[in-house]
Amino acid sequence: MGRIAKGLGWIAFAVLATLGIFLAEAHWEIRRIAPLLADRGALDAKLDAPGGPIRLHVINTATQPGGDGGPSIGHPSFRIEWPDGRVFLIDVGMDPAGAEEFGRTLELLIDAEPIQPHGSLAEQLGADAQNVAGVAFTHLHIDHTQGFAELCRSVGRGIDVFETTWQARRGNYTTASGREAVDASGCARKRELADGPVYTVPGFPGLVAVAAGGHTPGSTVYFVRVGDTTWALAGDISNFHDALIENRPKPKLYSLLVTPEATTRLEALRRWLAAIHALPGYEVVVSHDVDAIAASGPPAWSGRD
Questions:
Q1: 178 vs 289: CA distance, rounded Å
Q2: 268-302 residue pLDDT tens
């Protein structure tokens, strides 16, 4: 009996040591990533392009109410449309099965309520999926990429997937499954953006990317100009809009153990995005803050716009 207990103790120690190594490596990596950020002049110089997009919509694939009346967490995709009918998607959310699996994790981690799937991105797009000409991701966590395989099946052809150098070449164990969801789809035509720090997206005027880091090695903020409004799609730099504007960090244990983050870099990113949000004509959108998006963000996609 003593030998069994001792053996189990060594197994537990080995597991914890392995997890510690993964965590330490991820923290070391993320803290080394601090791409140059852009001011309004640099953004405007590349956003002011003829033939820019005419519409931006949000398509929410699932909503998970917070526990004890806390804020809800959404899992959206952002649909951008150009005058010729081409569509570009930032993030793709999850299909119902993926959402339910992910939701169970949040129930355990933050005592959230059961998740409420709204249908996959492909299902909600319907025939409009045939207009998808490009896709990009604010980062490669599975809740932002899992719906890509079904989108590929719906489109039935290759889709250009754009990435900054940081996203294309850097990652950690938290992004491995999200990257695999894209790569295993069989339809992703990877295109690495190469003219930063404000990266233009070839063929899509009025859409640019800025490498961010902080949350994951490849975290990226996308800016899209529609008419007189420039939307900054900030991904998970913050989980809630008010926290970003008020420069409130995520819970310490989350940034330390759940998703290894560079907290100093995240503070710099919150300050940068809050300053951008204060500029006339600029609006910052935080991916998971479904209530803030509904209140002041892009309109929801109905399929008939």
A1: 20
A2: 999 999 999 999 999 999 999 999 999 988 999 98
**Domain span holding position 148:** 31-296
Q: In what order do the strands lie in the sheet with 188-192?
A: 116-117, 55-64, 73-81, 87-90, 132-136, 159-163, 188-192
Please report whether residue 22 resides in a domain. Answer: no
Number of domains forming the structure of the chain = 1
Residue that wins the pLDDT comparison between 39 and 18:
39
Residue 12 is assigned to a structural domain of this protein: no
Within a domain: 16: no
Closest CA to 265 of 239, 238, 241, 242: 238
DSSP letters along 219-281, please?
-EEEEEEETTEEEEE-TTSSSSHHHHHTTPPPPHHIIIIIS---HHHHHHHHHHHHHHHTSTT
- Which pTM was predicted? 0.93
Q: What is the CATH number of the domain that holds 113?
A: 3.60.15.10
Helix (H, G, I), strand (E, B) or coil at 79: strand
Please state the φ and ψ torsions of residue 184, each to the nearest 5 degrees.
-75, -10
- Report yes or no on 286 lying in a domain: yes
- Please give the span between the terminal C-alpha atoms of the chain, in angstroms, as a whole number: 69
